[in-house]
Amino acid sequence: MPLIEIRGLTHIYSQGTPFEKTAIENLDLILEQGGTVGLIGHTGSGKSTLISHLNALLKPTAGTVLLDGEDVFATKASIRAARFRVGVVFQYPEYQLFEETVFADIAYGPKNLKLPQEEIDRRVRQAAAFVGMDESVFAQSPLELSGGQKRRVAIAGVLAMEPELLVLDEPTAGLDPAGREDLLEKLFAWQKARGTAILLVTHDMSIANRCGRLVVMSEGKIVMDGTPAEIFARDGELVSIGLDLPGPARIARLLREQGVAVPAGVYTADRLYEAVLSLWRGGGAPC
Amino acid sequence: MLKDITLGQYFPGDTPVHNLDPRTKLLLTVAYIVALFMVGSWGGYALVFAALAGVMALSHIRPRALLKGLKPLVFIIVFTAVLNLFFTSGEDVLFSWRFIKVTYTGLERAIFMVLRVLLLVSGTFLLTYTTSPLAITDALEKLLSPLKKLHVPVYELSLMMCIALRFIPTLIEETDRIISAQKARGADLETGTLPERAKALLPLLIPLFISSFRRADELALAMECRCYNGGQGRTRMKQLHMSGRDAVAFALGGLLVAGILILRKLGI
Q1: Does residue B183 form part of some domain?
Q2: Does the pLDDT of residue B220 top 60, yes or no?
């Protein structure tokens, strides 16, 4: 059984007022246990609205969200269960920090789960270790940390809830390139170690191309769904809905436009290198 | 969601009412409120109701939007009605049971008071529905500018109001975001005893305070970067202009007040 199954989801904001806006229209999506999924789309394509449905923060205007085959809005208990089983890290999560110490802030989620103190302790230490926070900062105020560290504490706060699906909305926005790489590596390492599913919302294609599966949204609908190779092979469509291509795919596209027979679906530097090399050896390339 | 609150909300539009000078609308609203308290008969209320319906039709505000705004006032309206219904003394008793006595005067007064509250609130809603908060602030500043002679800091007050109004939607959005984020971490805001619920608000209030201070800092910095140094000698990008339309509005407002006074005199 898939972990999450969304059927015919529609969400309309401010229904019945002049500000009425359809954010998501009749959307179907299945998310399996484990694996990394990238959700990409232009600003305003409905990505953020979609993820708020996964942990029952928003109630669908129409359609259902099934978690393990059960409607998340069935009862109060099922709503609460969804909050804990699907961990969502929103954009700029550092603004949600509020506790007096880093430790207490990471422990906020597990505490709401009503876990025993030793278990909370274990989870906080483990989550902090995963995001690379040293235990020496546990007693500090989270507000005294640097921006990048605050972000890690906030993410650790959700990791400590040990969700089955971790959703991150633009987790690397506003970080420098080194911080971005570092955070991504840690998140993917966490995913591998625990075997949970990760849904990464991003419009940074260099992040998207590391996911096992990509889902592309445009104007409240899913327009493409497949492996990065399949998605990036449809480069023309991606560009037409206002999305970028990863650097290597952009080069491949330019080469193709110049008449060089680089195969479609080349999106990593390694594959581009191989493709160009084989063309070179085969004597097919004029350059 | 918090976003759906309609109290004091502005619905943009391009109608004769929207396009009136905000000063006109503000003055007419004040006149309307004063006139409403002079109404003392069924005919008067009918006239005011007709005027209100006319303005609503002109401004394309749907009655449903207005009713939604009136919802939070149900308690006050019921309270007013009950108070007037049972505590008005008079001889013409309609109905009595033990110590409860309803008089015809009381019934009439209760209906009048409810009508008055409804019409009063609806009138002011029409002002806020058709005039952006910034335009209202502008109009207030202009109308109060004679007070500058008395060293009332009119400009500073209106700037403060402007900034406060400007940040209401921002703060609502921020609150929404923080609520979502804390709920995602399992915060339970709906159940529990009162002290528990008050405690559950801390994870919302602390980040909200921090971000408000941060925003205030950023705003001050941005204003200083653009050489803001007080209101002295500042000009406006959008000047307020009275036009023929405003003259018509004043004339119609005058007619309404005159009509109310005549009906009062005639006792209809």
Answers
A1: no
A2: yes
User: Averaged over A203-228, what is the pLDDT?
Assistant: 89
Cα–chain-centroid distance for residue B23?
A: 15
Pairing between strand B93-97 and B100-103? antiparallel
pLDDT tens digit string along A61-105? Answer: 999 999 988 999 988 889 989 999 999 999 999 888 989 999 999
Residue of chain B whose alpha carbon sits nearest to that of A59 = B1
Distances (CA, A) of B124 to B120, B131, B254: 6, 11, 18
Q: What's the domain range around B50?
A: 7-131+239-268
In a domain, B60, yes or no: yes
Residues of A with CB under 8 A from a CB of B: 13-14, 16-18, 52, 55, 57, 80, 83-84, 87-90, 93, 95-98, 108-109, 112-113, 143, 157-158, 161
Q: Which amino acid is at A13?
A: Y
Q: Given B3, B177, B186, which is nearest A90 (Cβ)?
A: B177
Domain borders along chain A are 4-226
Q: What is the mean pLDDT of chain B?
A: 84
- Quote ipTM for the complex: 0.85
The topology (CATH level 3) of A4-226 is Rossmann fold (3.40.50)
Q: What percent of chain B has pLDDT over 70?
A: 94
Instruction: Report the chain A residue with the minimal C-alpha distance to residue B206.
Output: A98
Q: Is residue B97 part of a domain?
A: yes
Arithmetic mean of pLDDT, B144-155: 85
- Give the nearest partner residue to B184 out of A18, A88, A113, using CB atoms: A88
Over 80: is that where the pLDDT of A122 sits? yes
Query: What number of other Cβ atoms are within 10 A of residue B34's Cβ?
Result: 11
pLDDT digits (tens, 9 = 90+) for B49-90: 999 999 988 888 888 878 877 888 888 888 888 888 877 776
Q: How many domains does chain B have?
A: 1
In this complex, do B184 and A157 lie within 8 Å of one another by their Cβ atoms? no
- Using alpha carbons, select from B142, B136, B122 the residue that is nearest to residue B53: B122
Work out the number of other CB atoms within 10 angstroms of the CB of residue B15: 14
CB-nearest to B11 from A18, A52, A89 is A18
* Residue A203, pLDDT score: 80
The rounded distance, in Å, linking the Cα atoms of A147 and A50 is 27
Residue B233 lies in a domain: no
- Closest chain A residue to B205 measured between Cα atoms? A98
Residue bearing tokens 């972000």:
A151
Contacts of B206 in chain A (CB under 8 A): 98
CA distance A222 to chain B (A): 24
